[in-house]
Every structure is written in structure tokens, then in C-alpha cells.
Specification:
Blueprint: H1 19-44, H2 48-65, E1 74-76, H3 81-87, E2 91-92, E3 98-100, H4 106-130, H5 132-136, H6 141-164, H7 167-183, H8 187-190, H9 192-207, H10 213-217, H11 239-248, H12 251-270, H13 275-297, E4 302-304, H14 306-315, H15 320-333, H16 337-344, H17 348-372, H18 380-398, E5 402-406, E6 409-413, H19 415-429
Antiparallel strand pairs: 1-4, 2-3, 5-6
Length: about 450
């Protein structure tokens, strides 16, 4: 029966593919999120194993709250890196390199992460109280589209930086993904990411670009939770805790805007309006509570992952069950430092090649979101809103965002946060805001019949 499946129209029930194929698809989603997810703990001093555990548990919690309808994976958020660098900066080792975890301050940063998740809860309550129409008046396609475009463009330099470490491996990975997606048949067509990683990794083995020393040194089994970073034990009235709250909580305003853009991107990819069903209030609540849980357990903030949205667009397998399989795999593997070491042997060039197409896919989805919602750019008002969002996102991101002091504590807003705030405010105050969110027909989502990448 599975041989007759028309993958071009999208698969919404992965059970018809069989257990074996669903497992492989789950592995693909896990690979897609792994590189970016583990990068955050490497930059902040948090545990990679804890991060994997929080990503898996957070994703399952999100799916539970959203009635198991939204095919989203929650991984580490990069938006909070600035907050970590202020509250718990990395310490220098014997050679002067900033590679030592700041175990004294990390719990306070994680505790603040937990409280930032409660901001999502407040937003969810507002939507439930005043209705989706009033709230979505602030998030029309002319705002969400450019925000989605900006997410991909902001991520683009990191893909190039990774590629520069080994352009040969990057091109092999990128070329394999393109070839599988364009000319592949059956399972080859819906597993481009995993095949791209395996083929380029094989090339890396032949060329001697893989270092196996870390694998031999790693243990097979380990506990992913580490008390020295758990925010659960740092909630007090100390000056360090208060300072961490003022520094990190405002970042949630930016990540909520990213969340709206990500959910709009997933809606456009799948062809179902998840902002309406199960509702933005539920998706925000799920994301926020997952972040709160992660902070309490000593992990970084969670966020819906654009990498996995790119996988959805490439594979056209839209069943959330596949994402939950990936989440369970992340939880299981969080207990194996040996597996973590194996994944860390994947050369950076391969990650760059895979990211090259995934990050571009995010921006392309943003363009499609604008086009399919027929945003009129002959209207100067819409043109100005989009222009301000794009310049703010890319411009301020290039200079490290915007910093200002509150109660003696310096707070940094990323370029994307500034862009989202500027876009929302401009859209609200400029005359001609005639957008009406149609919860009945799902105007934020595109038709699944014409989603071609």
C-alpha cells in the first residue's frame, strides 16, 4: 500500500509508511536538530546531555499541550546567548581560553530562563481572554512574513562559517540533499537530510577528517542532570538572582515573536492553520512551559526549531508522530555520553552543508507566506513595514543588537527582537491596517496542494 503513496501531496499519517520508515524519519529529524541544539550548551557551559533531555521532554510536553497536532520540535534557543554571556560568562582555562563553565552563576541564569517561560503563559492568557482575532491584528502576514525571512537570513552566516571549515564536505552534503530531493524516488526523496549526512560522513572518513579520540574517552551511560546548573536550586532573593531576571526575562519578548513566525512557517509548510487550531494560545503555552522546565533542570531555553520545519518542507511528511519519535530518541540518547561523542565527530563542514539548504528554506517559506497571502507591496504602508523589519533584523544583528540599562543591569535585544517590535508597532500605528485574521479558513496557512519547494 505504501508504494502507492503520493508523497508530492504530503503525508499526514505516517503510520501508513510502516514502523521502520517512521523510525528512520524520526532519526532524520533528530539529526536536523542535533547540531544547533548542542551548540548552545557548548557556548554557555551547560551540559550537552541535559540539553538533549530538555529538548526531548520539552517537545513531548509541547505536543501534549497542543493536542498532538503541531509537527514542531523544540530545541535550544540562540536568542538567550546574550543573556548567558552577561549573567554567566564563560571563564578562562589555564591557557587563557574562555572554555570553563561558570558553575557559580549558571544556576541563576537557568532560573531566569525558567521565569522567562512564564511570559509565554501570560501571552497565552491574553489570547484566551481577548480572542485570537484581536491579538492577531498585530501579526498580519506583512509582519510575520518578513520576520520568517529574517530568521533564515540571520542564520545564513553561521551556515557559511561552518562550510568554510571544509567546503568539499559541505558541497557533498548540500549536493546530496539537492539530488535526493529533486531526483530521488520513494524513501530516498523523503530522507534527504539523513542521506546527506551519511554520504558526506563517508567522504569524511575516507579523507581522514574524522577524529575518533573523543569517542574512546566517553562513557557509555551517564546521568544527564547536573545540580550545579539547575535553576531549581537558585530561586532566591539574592542580588545575582534579581539581576539575572532583569537581564534574561525581556528576551522572551523576542522569542515569542520568533515563535509566532515559526508557527506561521509550519502552517505554511504543512497547509494547516495551527495558529487557529489548536490555537496560538496553546502553542505559546507549550513553548513557554517547556522553557520553564528546561531552566529548572539546568538546560537552555527551548524554542520551535526552523531546522525541523525545513525537514518538513523537504520530506513532505507532516505527521507530528514522527517528531515525537525524534523527541524520544533525544531523551534516550541523552543518557549516553558515548553517542554524544559520536555525533560530535561529524565535521563542521557537513553541518554547514546541511544548514545551507535548511536555513535558505526558512527564508523561502517566509517569501511564500507573503505571496500566498497576497500582501500588496504596491501599498507604501506595507512596503515600509516590511523594509523596517528586514533592515532592523539584519542591521542590528550585525552590530550585536541594542543594549540599554534597567536598574543598573544592561539588557541586550537581538536584531530580530528589535525588528519584531518595530514591525508590530509600525503596523499598529500606521493608517491602513485593514488585516482581519480569518480563523475559519486559516488565512495564515497555504494550501497543501501547491506547496512545492
Amino acid at each position: 500500500m505504501s508504494e502507492k503513496i503520493d508523497y508530492s501531496k504530503g503525508v499526514y499519517d505516517a503510520r501508513q509508511l510502516g514502523a521502520g520508515r517512521m523510525f528512520i524519519l524520526g532519526v532524520q529529524h533528530m539529526f536536523a536538530m542535533f547540531g544547533a541544539t548542542v551548540l548552545v550548551p557548548l557556548l554557555t557551559g551547560l551540559s550537552v546531555s541535559t540539553t538533549l533531555l530538555c529538548a526531548g521532554l520539552g517537545t513531548l510536553l509541547f505536543h501534549l499541550i497542543t493536542k498532538k497536532k503541531v509537527p514542531a520540535f523544540l530545541g535550544s534557543s540562540f536568542a538567550y546567548l546574550g543573556g548567558f554571556s552577561i549573567v554567566a560568562p564563560m571563564l578562562a582555562d589555564a591557557d587563557g581560553n574562555l572554555t570553563v563553565a561558570n558553575t557559580k552563576m549558571l544556576p541563576y541564569a537557568c532560573a531566569a530562563i525558567a521565569f522567562s517561560g512564564l511570559v509565554y503563559l501570560a501571552a497565552s492568557v491574553l489570547i484566551s481572554t481577548f480572542g485570537i482575532r484581536r491579538i492577531m491584528k498585530f501579526f498580519p502576514p506583512v509582519v510575520t512574513g518578513p520576520i520568517i525571512i529574517s530568521i533564515g537570513l540571520i542564520l545564513a552566516p553561521s551556515a557559511i562559517n561552518n562550510c568554510q571549515s571544509n567546503w568539499i564536505l559541505a558541497f557533498v552534503a548540500l549536493g546530496t540533499v539537492i539530488a535526493c530531493n529533486i531526483w530521488g524516488k520513494g524513501m530516498v526523496k523523503i530522507l534527504p537530510i539523513l542521506i546527506g549526512v551519511l554520504v558526506s560522513y563517508a567522504v569524511a572518513l575516507v579523507t581522514g577528517a574524522v577524529d575518533f579520540q573523543r569517542i574512546s574517552e566517553a562513557a557509555w551511560v551517564g546521568i544527564p542532570l547536573h545540580r550545579e546548573a539547575m535553576g531549581l536550586f537558585a530561586i532566591d532573593g539574592s542580588p545575582e538572582f534579581i539581576s539575572a531576571l532583569f537581564t534574561i526575562i525581556p528576551i522572551a519578548l523576542a522569542t515569542m515573536m520568533e515563535h509566532v513566525g515559526d508557527i506561521a512557517a509550519i502552517s505554511a509548510t504543512v497547509g494547516h492553520n495551527y495558529i487557529n487550531d489548536p490555537g496560538l494560545n496553546r502553542t505559546l503555552l507549550g513553548d513557554g512551559l517547556a522553557t520553564t522546565m528546561a531552566g529548572l533542570l539546568g538546560g537552555p531555553a527551548n524554542t520551535t526549531y526552523g531546522e525541523n520545519t525545513g525537514v518538513l518542507a523537504l520530506s513532505k511528511i507532516y505527521d507530528p508522530l514522527v517528531i515525537r519519535i525524534a523527541a524520544v530518541l533525544a531523551i534516550i540518547l541523552s543518557f549516553s555520553p558515548k553517542f554524544e561523542a559520536v555525533i560530535n565527530t561529524i565535521p563542521t563542514g557537513i553541518i554547514g552543508g546541511i544548514s545551507f539548504v535548511l536555513y535558505g528554506m526558512i527564508s523561502a517559506i517566509g517569501v511564500r507566506n507573503v505571496v500566498e497571502n497576497r500582501v500588496d507591496f504596491t501599498n507604501s504602508r506595507n512596503l515600509i513595514v516590511a523594509a523596517v523589519i528586514l533592515v532592523c533584523a539584519l542591521g542590528f544583528n550585525s552590530v550585536g543588537g541594542v543594549s540599554f540599562a534597567v536598574a543598573g543591569v544592561t539588557i541586550n535585544l537581538s536584531g530580530l527582537a528589535v525588528a519584531a517590535i518595530a514591525g508590530i508597532l509600525l503596523n499598529a500605528v500606521l493608517p491602513g491596517n485593514d488585516y482581519e485574521f480569518d480563523a475559519a479558513d486559516g488565512s495564515e496557512a497555504a494550501s497543501s496542494s501547491n506547496l512545492q519547494v
